[in-house]
Structure formats: structure tokens, C-alpha cells
Specification:
CATH class of the domain at 90-234 in chain B: Mainly Alpha
Helix content of chain A: 10-25%
Largest sheet of chain A: 6 strands, mixed
Structural class of chain A: alpha+beta
Shape of chain B: globular
CATH topology of the largest domain in chain A: Rossmann fold
Largest sheet of chain B: none
CATH superfamily of the domain at 90-234 in chain B: MetI-like
Structural class of chain B: mainly alpha
Order of helices and strands of chain A: HEEEHEEEHHHEHEHEEHHEEEEEEEEEEE
Order of helices and strands of chain B: HHHHHHHHHHHH
CATH class of the largest domain in chain A: Alpha Beta
Strand content of chain B: under 5%
Shape of chain A: elongated
Oligomer: heterodimer
Number of strands of chain A: 21
Number of helices of chain B: 12
Number of domains of chain A: 2
Number of strands of chain B: 0
Radius of gyration of chain A: 25 Å
Strand content of chain A: 25-35%
CATH topology of the domain at 90-234 in chain B: MetI-like fold
Number of helices of chain A: 9
């Protein structure tokens, strides 16, 4: 597993203004039954101004701990947390200029919508009429105008979600932290809120840090994603980078579906390495200059990049990878058909085939098929 | 599949009518009787107390029904000693319930929110004071006050009452705090509230109903306490102590009237709490 790539992590913040949030060598350990359990291992991170940044990973990967260190609910065991270039390590949560949307919304049950949203401004001793103006403004942005007098329990989950959002945003924080905010909503509402959140973020222009375990959510909403596993950022990049070029086996497996094959390099030619399994079964993968003949490589291929042929593939495809195999499973999905193919490379492949026109062209279970894909769709991952 | 609906035959309709939910041996009849028996058992003594407050008895003896009258309500404060005892009891109950409300809230909050050195033993001690016999508690309080040289009177009674009712408040508040979403307090901090503001603006209003019922419980425990009070009162007469003293010379109907009024206040608070919680759950 690769260590965080410090240079890559910082590349974006180097472009001028100070990052909104910065982690410098942050470590966080918990004490549990006398044992030190690392929650976040040595992490460097820079989140840019106005960025929609997601922390993505399975539960227990350290994403929530990372967010809570930004909010000030947890203090790092070592390292520094910077907000707008200022070291806030050790500064209490109520003195930090960031606001959080909690997974449970954590609305004040004894206050109505208006009072909930006004809470932060009242703490800052903002003038009464100014509070009224700003609360009205933000309620309009989250489409809750007219709900001022409602108590939280009188509102639906989606509406409570918006109150929580408004309550945080009204303070115009340096950054908004969202802890799995859509987790409690049903699918339809969740998709609606994803679009809504993105719109609100564009409108207010505040940095959003979004914690989620839902890769689809992270891919659709984020400018950049940090994929975390076991307290380490495995990869940091744009949704496209992370999806197309997963840096580690974990990322390849966690984001979407990946086919993974490994094998020894037979020869390297023009930046392409060739791995052969039989005389006709081969994988071609673009590699760096350090790769030599005989090296063991792990290659990831996305299921939708693969073409499935029922006969011997045409000559045009032979420049890339070819694997023969037998269909073991066919699942029809309407827009696409998913095949599971046991291949000569030893691994079972998943293939998504668009149901474009020739629906009668479907392969059946037990059919002999050939899988082909262009060289650039093979991706070498760090082993 | 056919789209026409099958008309039910007369026989099936008849059959359906015959199938009734089978009445079990514990069916409505028996259950109702049992329920009313229990209610009667609980309510009868109170009904007798209230009824004899309206008894047109000639003297201080109020044991046989003579006739209906309102006159005892008019002559409620005829015995200055009784009136004073009642006032003493009410004052002690108010002070004791407020004090144990404040202290019990602190303990209950700490126990519900944090684990700290001694929290386990504190829990144990609370349940010990709730379950220990009042006679033992009273006797040991008496020797404690005497050996400390404290003059027995309203102050020692109040201290004793706070001592045994504090656990009840703490237990009620602790239960509420334990079900309180931690992130609500974090949200307050996140929005710029310090610990003090967070407690008074957020935590306190949310747990207030629990504190309120704890205080009511403490009030009820204090106003009718006899055993512990008897040990710690010295020459002070509280309402229960006065009644006990009066049993030999006859309990006047005024006692029934006062009891009725105290009961009415209790019922009032119970109703208010009931209506509030039911209207809340209707909206949920």
C-alpha cells in the first residue's frame, strides 16, 4: 500500500491563495483499554478555498475523526491543524470559524426553525435586525421560507436537513463540515439533496468538507476526493482521476467495480508492457520507465471499458489486450448487461455492456467469448 | 388472467360472518372487572379521605358519616397549630425540593454524561439511600445531628429531606441525559457557545421536564414524610407530625380538607404533565 503522496497533495494549494484548511503531519491516536489505537496516521492535507472536498472511506477509516479535528471536537495527538493559514491546534470548537452539519442534524428540539438558525449569530452578538435579515436570506437559499415558526419535530427529514444546513451556513464560516448529512434520507430525497447541496455550495462559495462512505455521492458532488483507509489517505484527486487511475488496490476496489489481474512483464516496448498468459491471451498496460522485463505488475481495468466479442476479435482490437474466457453469469440491467467471465488470466472479469442496439447479440452462460480493450484502459496500480 | 371479479357466493358471506375473533377466558369481561377492582383498591382510601372532609361531624371525632357540609372548608384554619404545621411542611417541602432539584440535577447530569473516578460508587450510594429503611436513616441522622451539636428544627428536617430525595432527582435526570444526543451539545459549541451558554441555552431547557418531575417527586416525598422527620424535628411540628399527635384526641375534618387540597394540587400537576406529553406525541 502506498504512503500519501505529499507533493501531489499540495499541488493545488500552491496555486496562489492560502488553503482554507491544512493538516501538517497530523496524527491521532485513541487510548482504548490501555492500548494506543491509531485513528489517523501521519496526514498532510490542504483543502483549497471554495472547494467541495470529500473524505471518502469505509466506516472506521478515520474520515470522521479527520473532520472532527477540523471542527475542534478532537485534538491531534501530533501535528497541526491550520485554518486560513492560522494554527488552530488546541483552540476550542466554539472559537473556530468553521461550522458543522451533523449526521443526526442535532437540531435544538426546544427551538423553532428561526431560533435554531439564529443561534450562532446570537452567540456572536450580531444586531437583532441584522440577524433577522440574514436568517431570512439563508432560509430562502435552502427553500424554507415560511417555516420559521416550525419546531424540528414538526418537519420532515429533508426539511430538518435544510435547517441544519441553514443553521451552519448563516454564520458564513470559513468552511462547512458535513458529516454524512444525507445518510438518513431515502434514496430519492438523497439524490435531490445532492443536487441541492451542490447548488448551495456554488451560491455561497464556501469550502465544503464532506464526509461520506457513499462513493457515488462523492464522485458526483466533489471537486476533489480523499479516499481513506485504515487512517491513511490512499489517494487524493479529482473524481475522474480517482476513478480512472486508482493509486492502490484498495481504491480500485472501493470506488466502483474494478477487474484486477496480475502477471509478469514479458517485454516493454514504447512505454507499453506486455503480460502474456497464453499465446493469444495477453494484457497490454502503459508503464513508467522504471518497469523492467520480469517485474510483477497488478493491472486494473474498469468493466465498462471492455468490449465483449462472441467470435475471434477483429484485427483493429489486437493492438490492445485480449483475454478469452467463458461467460459464467449474465445479469440484464435494462440500460446495460453485466457479464461475469472466467478468463485465461485466472481472474473472473466483470464486463458492463451497453444495450445499444443489437439486443439479440447477447451472450449466454457458457458461451466462449473474447474480451478486448485499448492499452490506455489498462491501469497499473501500486502493489 | 381474467379481469372480471368473482362475485362472492352467499355461502362464503355467511361463513365469513360466522368467523368472529374468539373470546379468550381473559376476554373483555374479566379484564374489565379486574381493572376496576385495582382502580377501586387504589382510589378508595383517597375517596374516603375526600368524603370525610365534607362530613358534618359535631366534634373532633370524624369517623362516622353524619351529613354533608362545606363548613370545614370555611373553617380550614381554625386550629393555629395545624395551620402552622402545614405552613412549616410546605416551606420545608419547597426548600428541600428546590435544593435537591439543583444538587440532584448536577449529579444526574454528571452521571449521565461522563464516566469518572467514583461514578460507580456514586451510583451505588444513590440506590442505597433510596432503598435503605427510613427508620435506620432517621436514627443515624439523629445521632449525626446530636453529635455535631446541631439544634434540631426546620433546618435539620430540611437537610434530612434533601439527603433522601436528592437520589430520586438524580436518577430521573440521569435517565434523560443518557438519551440526549451528544451532538446537540456539540452543535451548540460548534455555533460558538461556551460550556456555560451551552448548558443554559441548550441542555437545561431540554432536560427541564425531567428536572421538573424530579422536583415534584422530591416535594411529594418531603411533604408527607413522617419517620425521618420525627427523628430530626426536635420540637418542630410538621403536618404529618401534628396529625400523628392528634390521633389520640381525634383528627379534625380540617385535616381531610388539607389532604384533599394537597391531593388536588398533585392531580393538577400530573394532568398538566400528561396533557403536555400526549399533545407532543400527537405531533411527532
Amino acid at each position: 500500500m502506498s504512503t500519501p503522496q505529499h507533493s501531489a497533495v499540495r499541488s493545488r494549494s500552491a496555486s496562489g491563495d492560502t488553503p482554507a484548511i491544512e493538516f501538517v503531519g497530523v496524527n491521532k491516536n485513541y487510548l482504548s483499554h490501555g492500548e494506543t489505537v491509531p485513528a489517523v496516521k501521519r496526514t498532510d492535507l490542504a483543502i483549497g478555498q471554495g472547494e467541495f472536498f470529500s473524505l471518502l472511506g469505509p466506516s472506521g477509516c478515520g474520515k470522521t475523526t479527520t473532520m472532527r479535528m477540523i471542527a475542534g471536537f478532537e485534538e491531534p495527538t501530533a501535528g497541526q491543524v491550520l485554518l486560513d493559514g492560522k494554527d488552530v491546534t488546541g483552540v476550542a470548537a466554539n472559537k473556530r470559524d468553521v461550522n458543522m452539519v451533523f449526521q443526526s442534524y442535532a437540531l435544538f428540539p426546544h427551538l423553532n426553525t428561526y431560533q435554531n438558525v439564529a443561534f450562532g449569530l446570537e452567540r456572536k452578538k450580531v444586531a437583532k435586525n441584522e440577524i433577522g435579515r440574514r436568517v431570512g436570506e439563508i432560509l430562502e437559499i435552502v427553500s424554507l421560507t415560511g417555516m420559521e415558526k416550525r419546531a424540528p419535530r414538526e418537519m420532515s427529514g429533508g426539511q430538518q436537513q435544510r435547517v441544519a444546513l441553514a443553521r451552519a451556513l448563516v454564520n458564513r464560516p470559513r468552511a462547512l463540515l458535513l458529516d454524512e448529512p444525507l445518510g438518513a434520507l431515502d434514496l430519492k430525497l438523497r439524490q435531490q439533496m445532492q443536487i441541492e447541496l451542490k447548488r448551495i455550495q456554488r451560491e455561497v462559495g464556501i469550502t465544503f468538507v464532506y464526509v461520506t462512505h457513499d462513493q457515488g455521492e462523492a464522485l458526483t458532488m466533489s471537486d476533489r476526493i480523499a479516499v481513506m483507509n485504515a487512517g491513511v489517505i490512499e489517494q487524493l484527486g479529482s473524481p475522474r482521476e480517482i476513478y480512472e487511475r486508482p493509486a492502490t488496490r484498495f481504491v480500485a476496489g472501493f470506488i466502483g467495480t474494478s477487474n484486477l489481474v496480475d502477471g509478469h512483464v514479458e517485454r516493454v516496448e514504447g512505454g507499453l508492457a506486455l503480460i502474456s498468459y497464453t499465446t493469444q491471451d495477453r494484457v497490454v498496460v502503459p508503464v513508467g520507465p522504471s518497469v523492467r522485463t520480469g517485474d510483477k505488475l497488478e493491472v486494473s481495468i474498469r468493466p465498462e471499458k471492455i468490449d465483449l466479442h462472441r467470435g475471434v476479435p477483429p484485427v483493429t482490437a489486437t493492438g490492445g489486450s485480449v483475454l478469452s474466457g467463458t461467460v459464467t453469469e449474465v445479469v440484464y440491467h435494462g440500460t446495460s448487461t453485466n457479464y461475469t467471465v472466467s478468463t485465461a488470466a485466472g481472474a473472473d472479469f466483470t464486463v458492463f455492456d451497453q444495450n445499444a442496439s443489437n439486443a439479440d447479440d447477447l451472450a449466454d452462460r457458457g458461451d466462449r467469448v473474447y474480451l478486448t480493450w485499448a492499452p490506455q484502459h489498462s491501469y497499473m496500480i501500486g502493489v | 388472467m381474467t379481469t372480471t371479479m368473482q362475485r362472492p357466493s352467499p355461502e362464503t358471506v355467511e361463513q365469513a360472518a360466522k368467523i368472529k375473533p374468539r373470546r379468550r377466558i381473559t376476554g373483555p369481561g374479566l379484564l374489565h372487572t379486574w381493572t376496576w377492582l385495582i382502580i377501586a383498591w387504589l382510589v378508595l382510601p383517597i375517596v374516603v379521605m375526600i368524603a370525610f372532609g365534607f362530613n358534618d361531624t359535631p366534634g373532633r371525632y370524624n369517623q362516622t358519616w353524619v351529613g354533608f357540609t362545606f363548613k370545614w372548608y370555611g373553617r380550614l384554619f381554625e386550629y393555629p397549630d395545624l395551620t402552622n404545621a402545614l405552613i412549616t411542611s410546605i416551606v420545608i417541602a419547597i426548600v428541600a425540593s428546590l435544593l435537591s432539584g439543583a444538587l440532584g440535577t448536577g449529579i444526574g447530569y454528571a452521571l449521565g454524561r461522563y464516566r469518572f473516578r467514583g461514578s460507580g460508587s456514586l451510583n451505588l450510594i444513590m440506590f442505597a439511600t433510596m432503598s435503605s429503611p427510613e427508620l435506620i436513616m432517621g436514627a443515624s441522622l439523629l445521632s449525626l445531628f446530636v453529635s455535631a451539636g446541631a439544634g434540631l428544627g426546620p433546618v435539620t428536617i430540611t437537610i434530612a429531606h434533601v439527603m433522601f430525595s436528592i437520589s430520586f432527582v438524580a436518577v430521573v435526570v440521569r435517565a434523560r441525559v443518557m438519551t440526549l444526543d451528544r451532538s446537540i451539545e456539540e452543535a451548540a459549541a460548534d455555533l460558538g457557545a461556551g460550556p456555560w451558554t451551552t448548558f443554559w441555552k441548550v441542555t437545561f431547557p431540554i432536560i427541564l421536564p425531567a428536572i421538573f418531575s424530579g422536583v415534584l417527586l422530591a416535594f411529594a416525598l418531603s411533604i408527607d414524610d413522617f419517620i425521618v422527620t420525627a427523628f430530626t424535628a426536635g420540637t418542630t411540628k410538621t403536618f404529618p407530625l401534628w396529625i400523628w399527635g392528634a390521633t389520640r384526641v381525634g383528627i379534625p375534618p380540617q385535616v381531610n380538607v388539607m389532604g384533599t387540597l394537597i391531593f388536588a394540587v398533585g392531580v393538577f400537576f400530573a394532568l398538566v404533565a400528561n396533557i403536555r406529553s400526549s399533545s407532543k406525541s400527537k405531533r411527532d
